[in-house]
Amino acid sequence: MKKFICTVILSAMLLMCAPCVHAVSLSEISAKASVIIEAQSGKIIAGKNEYERLPMASTTKIMTTLLLIESGGLDEEFKVDNNAIMVEGSSMGLCADDIVTKRTLCYGMMLPSGNDAANETAVLLGGTAEKFADMMNEKAEQLGLSDTNFVTPSGLHDDNHYSTAYDMAKLTREALKNEIFKEICGTSSKKLSFGNPPYERWLVNTNKLLALYDGCIGVKTGFTDEAGRCLISAAEKDGVTLICVTLNAPNDWNDHIRMYDYGFSVTESRSADFDFSGLYVDVVGGDTDRVKVAPAEVPNYTITNGEVPEMSCKVILDKFIYAPVSRGRKAGTVEFYSGDDLIMTTELTTENGCGAVVKEYQPKWYEIIVDWFKRII
């Protein structure tokens, strides 16, 4: 494979003349800690005590659910651990010997915020809650959540169970890259079948922001006496995705609406401007030596507070392709980056085709001799 790096400073940077908007003051937000980030880049748009370590209640289940999804086998049925599901607080309604699937547990955690589903997940994946906490913290370390420590799978209070608004935004940004997680956390209600024997029942999402704010796509509520009201949400509008986090927020629904109204007022989505006009792939056996290729799709990028990010791309081009070549044939891949973050991978495809050249067969010397003897005989 032929690999090369193509780094482009967007021409829009030269044309951009929009004024810089200063970060909004979140002093009137009810939350003890809050943050708004732009999901593509992870850039902080505005924050308030965003690095302060605080309890985060059931928003913990974002991590628990992500680990369960990543474990695979989501639709295999199994019987719950009867000890694991005996837990205080919110519940998805699991009973002794119930038959469930991992996917059902995911909905049970993300919609009604079932502590029983979270405990079952911990025992299923870790064997014990303590070992599962180790798995959670290992994942947190991988994601760079340096101010986070997990003790419980559900978010029930423990003095050593904490995070920050910024770390939880980073976790949510990673979780939303998983399409299964994104679908589940954005579901307002879901009819599922579980029990012993299984029967159908409805689970309803506690996240009222799905109905209160146009474009909201999730993510998770939380509450304990010690943590107060916690809310993590995400919303999409005009090609921009924002993530908002509030910890200990008496007026969390309105906090998030205000934060989104501000966040979307200072962000803008634009199409990345890369020049692929000189990109070709060699053709073997064709009526032309090469054909032009281009990405099947080019991503958008987000301007925040008037700042244009530096975009780059890495092209991985096939060494050659065989004729005949049709238009739209895959000839490699291209990776698009915003800073160090990979934001999209797409195919390189041919923009034009070519035919194959049929050459007249030239017999080898020994074939000529054999043919000469055949004619004599």
Helix fraction by DSSP (H/I, runs of at least 4): 25-40%
* Annotated CATH homologous superfamily of the largest domain: DD-peptidase/beta-lactamase superfamily
Which fold does the CATH topology of the largest domain refer to? Answer: Beta-lactamase
Beta-strand percentage range: 25-35%
Biggest sheet overview? 7 strands, mixed
How many DSSP helices? 10
Structural class: alpha+beta
Mean pLDDT: 90
Rounded Rg:
27 Å
Strand order of the largest sheet: 1-15-17-18-13-12-16
Word description of this protein:
With 377 residues, the chain is of the alpha+beta class. The chain is built from 10 helices and 18 strands. The strands form 5 sheets. The protein has a 7-stranded mixed sheet with strand order 1-15-17-18-13-12-16, with no helix packed on it. The protein has a 5-stranded antiparallel sheet with strand order 3-2-10-9-8, sandwiched between helices. A two-stranded antiparallel ribbon has the order 4-5. A hairpin with a 2-residue loop joins strand 17 and strand 18 (341-350). The chain is globular and about 100 Å long. 41% of the residues are buried. Residues 1-24 have low confidence and may be disordered.
Structure at a glance:
The chain contains ten helices and 18 strands. It is α+β, with helices and mostly antiparallel strands and 377 residues long.
